[in-house]
Amino acid sequence: MAFYLDFEKKIQQIQEDISLAEIRHDAQAVEILQKDLDKEVTKTYKNLSPFQELQLARHQDRPYALNYVNLIMTDKYELHGDRHFADDKAIICYLGLIEGEQVMLIGEQKGRGTKNKLKRNFGMPNPEGYRKALRAAQMAEKFGIPVLMLIDTPGAYPGLGAEERNQSEAIARNLLELSKLNTQTISIVIGEGGSGGALAIGVADRLAMMRYSVFSVISPEGCSAILWNDPAKVEAATKALKITSADLKELGLIDDIIDEPLIGAHRDKQGAAEAIKNYFLSSLAQLREMSSDERMDKRYERLVSIGEFEEREVSS
After folding, report:
1. What is the residue extent of each domain of the chain?
2. What pTM did the predictor assign?
3. Residue 276 Cα distances to 36, 48, 135, 267, 297, angstroms
4. pLDDT tens digits for range 72-103
């Protein structure tokens, strides 16, 4: 059964009315209700607050990386392990085809249901996950295969074992090595982009966000706890952090916003998958028009421009 957020209740009611009209075989009522639904969808989703976008990014029915792997890839083969410690299930790596293009897809996977959430560690990778991702990316570089990275994590796992196995070093190593990777790389935030856990597979020639995804140095819950020590301030923290795709595009921190279906990826998984596939293929075509040196220079320029600011004199 579909799960609806508080601000989606009117949409839920209309969709239930449509289902009842279909059961009655009342085509005229279905047609009228469908128009009402389209209007309500436009009205609701064109005026979302940052907190509502955060809720959509975390929606329990939102597609995860593995959903997109199954929807857009063919002839796929999963790679396991970092060749040092273990196979981290919170990171998935697949070699396969997207519309005939050979691709290495690396993604963060959250899992559904208690058993799978535990298996995937709630989408929070350990150091071995990031090392597995780097191993897959370097394999792709060796064979001249483009890399597609799908970001969706609340953050890197902060447990004792992860720290003992050098979590921060694993993330830092990925930042360095991915910045130098000599093959086309495209990274997309498909849900949550949380802190260093997202950055570790976020260094690429192109960094994009799905329309209803978020990207932040800290969760709004963590921010409200630190600044106000008040859980009720989560909505205010979400707005202050500037974590939506529109915010990051305006700040110049991402290259593009991918127009997932207006009603959300959780309501139209196939449409969302098509949007990701089309963005990847068009971006790959553009990157291939550049020489290797030109592409690497562009990547460098984009990375060093992050955090750029101007100092201005203020007249007294």
Report:
1. 6-47, 53-304
2. 0.91
3. 29, 22, 24, 15, 25
4. 999 999 999 999 999 999 999 999 999 999 99
